[in-house]
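User: tokens in, sequence out, please.
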């Protein structure tokens, strides 16, 4: 359940869907049941202020992390190389 901003440095509480940005990301593939071939989808939220300059990405071994929006292109290229 969404309860606060996914940015660890932010303490904004999730109250309304119309503020901030909700992300639906595939979780860790190793957490899926064996043989299912699917990843568990999870929902994350960034408050309005954090969503202006940050985004969320999944990193193997780290999970879902926040990165600066300018680094989003670099993160996508790195994920494609994996």
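Assistant: Sequence out:
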């Amino acid at each position: 359940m969404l309860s606060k901003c996914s940015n660890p440095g932010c303490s904004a509480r999730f109250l309304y869907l119309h503020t901030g940005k909700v992300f639906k990301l595939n979780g860790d593939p190793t957490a899926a049941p064996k043989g299912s071939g699917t990843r568990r989808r999870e929902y994350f939220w960034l408050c309005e202020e954090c969503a202006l300059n940050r985004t969320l990405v999944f990193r193997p071994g780290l999970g879902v992390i926040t990165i600066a929006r300018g680094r989003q292109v670099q993160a996508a290229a790195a994920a494609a190389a994996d």
